[in-house]
Amino acid sequence: MAEFLWGVATGAHQTEGNNVSSDWWGHEHTPGTPIAEPSGDAVDAYHHWRSDMDLAAQAGFTDYRFGIEWSRIEPEDGHISRAAVDHYRRMVDGALERGLRPFLTLQHFTLPQWFVHAGGWLNPHAVPRFLRYVEAIGPVLDAGAGHVGTINEPNIAAMFATDDGQGMSALRDGLPTPNPRATQVLIDVHHATRDHLMSAHPQLAIGWGVSVQDCQPEPGAEHLLAAYTQPRDQVFLEASTRDDWVGVQTYTRIRIAAGSDGHPVEYDDPTTRRTMNGWEFYPEALGGALRRTAPLVGDVPIIVTENGIATTDDHERIEYTTRALQSMRDAMDDGITVGGYLHWSLLDNYEWGSYTTTFGLVAVDRTTFTRIPHPSLAWLGRQNPTNLSQIRK
Predict the structure, then answer these.
(1) Could you tell me which residues are beta bridge partners of residue 342?
(2) CATH of the domain at 328
(3) Residue 31 burial by CB count (10 A; 0-12/13-18/19+): exposed, middle or buried?
(4) How buried is 38 (Cβ within 10 angstroms: 0-12 exposed, 13-18 middle, 19+ buried)?
(5) Are residues 237 and 296 in contact, defined by beta-carbon separation less than 8 angstroms?
(6) Beta bridge mates, 210
């Protein structure tokens, strides 16, 4: 079995700052936007990535997931920024110098504004446009990366996609069922990118991270579970069966009940314990999501590419993570192949509209950009499950 990945995760737009050519920057500054506050400088990880990697390595982590921002690489249609390519290549070099294995995400929700204005994922040229970007970052991919994720949470991206090409502005209407056209395009983009990378960069392990929550039917609603999960995550997991790995990104459970029309609805129990962003506090969701994913992907190894909690209480963060890891260990003991765990997130960052929701093992003073590690950083780093028997009750 390959060595277990033990690391932390970050996102490009959420940490770098001043991502001015992206669609989210445009949405943040559109008059009347529903977005509460703009990303601005974020936590300036574009310039502080070295100290961020130092924190991860010194804590005992062996893997570091970070994003490459397409809108920095290609800020205008057909214009490739050599400076941006070199920046991300230096980040790969920097991770390796610190003993961290770079785990790259090629697209994490944000898109170049020019791409969105041309229709986004619903543009008929979406596949070749994305492949052009992937080919441009060849020097980054060849610098020593190990794992590469093509698209972060494609099922959420498909929920944001609309026929008017406005992408994430669909947040105005909440999170709908994934757009079927966008679902197919994203799968096509993933497959084309995977095939290209496996041919041009055979040293890389290719997959993508899917948002997979622990969906549990209420009594009497068992027959509705598949109808709820099929368009929301199952179709994306089933598209991963030829990948080198598949990522599971889990935070909570979703309880499914029958609506008045007989269709599945999410059951909301007002008495349940909640995290600061309103999700149910249910750490064991990780084990449930792994058990639901495994039969859908066959022999493809699963990597937990995101798992964590929004809280201001670090004791609660440790409680949540302990129980989540225990549920993962139990699933592994039952024969489910899990190849790694990447915690979300290393840093408190921009959580898609607000800085008040804090997932980080490290707090950040957004005036000075000083990093302030929580005790959970050192605690989680030293769990280092190279010998996986350490994750036990």
Answers:
(1) 7
(2) 3.20.20.80
(3) exposed
(4) middle
(5) yes
(6) 248
Dump pLDDT digits (tens) for 199-239: 999 999 999 999 999 999 999 999 999 999 999 999 999 99
String of DSSP letters for 198-213: HHH-TTSEEEEEEE--
Give the pLDDT band of residue 167 (cuts 50, 70, 90).
very low
Measure the CA dihedral 170/175/176/181, to 10°: 60
- Predicted confidence band at 387 (pLDDT cuts at 50, 70, 90)? low
Q: Token pair for residue 354?
A: 């607000």
Q: What is the dihedral of CA 251, 257, 258, 260, to 10 degrees?
A: -90
User: Do 19 and 69 touch, CB atoms closer than 8 A?
Assistant: yes
Q: How far is 128 from 317, CA to CA, in rounded Å?
A: 42
Give the domain range for residue 144.
Answer: 5-390
Single pTM value for the model: 0.96
Looking at the structure of the chain, the number of domains it has is 1
